[in-house]
Each structure stands twice: as structure tokens, then as C-alpha cells.
Amino acid sequence: MIYVYAITDPFEAPEDLRGLHDAPLETAGTGPIRAVYSTHERLEPTPEPSLLWRHDQVVERLMEAGGVLPLRFGTTFATTDELDPILVRDEARFERLLARVRGCVELSVRVGVTPTAEPDASSGTAYLQSKLATGRERDGAAERVLGPLRELAKASSRRTPRAGGAVLNESYLVGREAVGPFVAEVKALNARNGDVAVSCTGPWGPYSFVEEVEA
Hints:
Helix content: 25-40%
Order of helices and strands: EEEHEEHHEHEEHE
Largest sheet: 5 strands, antiparallel
Strand content: 25-35%
Radius of gyration: 21 Å
């Protein structure tokens, strides 16, 4: 079995870098794109913290060498014979995506809004209406905060919030040179908007801006 970490520009993985269970990294592909993987006799890619951490570590080190499309944790194939045709078939798509994320990282912003009132539980209808009002309040406050951040990013991706929830998460594709100004703007927005709590995590690999590899 092979475990695939990322689609990359044509470079070799660092010799000192190891994959899951300290397996050596290998590279598939001969054209303008590569796939970085490790080979395992048996592997159960359960989302344990140590395995998740190693997956992310591999992605982050690869990003130091060039463009990287990080794949979701748990992407496996039986052999490279299954992987190679995908690299050929989707070469143009992978090149386009690599051009989009090259030199960029992902930053995740969380906006929490304090509701102005407790949900009205006097009836089912009143409760649903109050939850909808909370959602509208959240969206309005989030747009006020997140709009300036989008101007500092190359792209953004919002996760669908829980219905009526008071928290919104949005990810941003940001050039490495813009990470400092972006984080500074998050802090300034948090200070200027007392009715919301704004936090930022990252930088990460640009997972939210990569389409899945389809067999």
C-alpha cells in the first residue's frame, strides 16, 4: 500500500524527512508534477494525533521546496500503478492548482458573535425565529470583520456554519509575504469590534483550496 501526502512541483523530498511510521518518502511521476508518498506493508491511517502531526509535518517541509497540493489525511492506493494514470490524466488540473497555491499558505479565522438575546423557547416557532435572528446577526458582524481580510488574501473559503450558531469560520489563501500584515489586521479588527471575538490560526498547508484526487 502507498500513502500519498501531496501533489507537488517536480522536486525531490528532503532526504531527512520521513512519513508515517518513519517510512522513507518516494516520488511518483515524470512530467511537470509529482506525487510524494511512502510505502507500507500494512497501514491503518486512523486519525491519531501522532499520525496527523506527521502528515502535516511532511506537507509543511515540502512547502519549503516549492508548490504543494496537500492531500487529505488517509489518501491511499494499492500501488503506484493506480496512482500514475491519475497523474497523467489530471496533469493540467494539478498544474493549474499548483499555480494557484504556489508561495501561499492557509490561515483560518474564527469569528464568534455574542447574541444580543437568549433564544426564545416559548414555542417552537419562536425558538426557530430567534435562531434565525442569531444567524443573521452573526453573518452581519462577520461580513463587517471579514471583508477587510479578503482584500489581503488571494482567495477565501467559508465553512458552512451550524444553523443558528454564533460562530463562523473562514479560511484564506495568503501569500507568505502577506502573513504578517494579515495577522496584524486580525488583531486590529478584534480590537475595533467589541461585539465579536476574532482569532486566527495557521499558517497551514492550503488544504481548503485543493480539489480532491479522484481515482
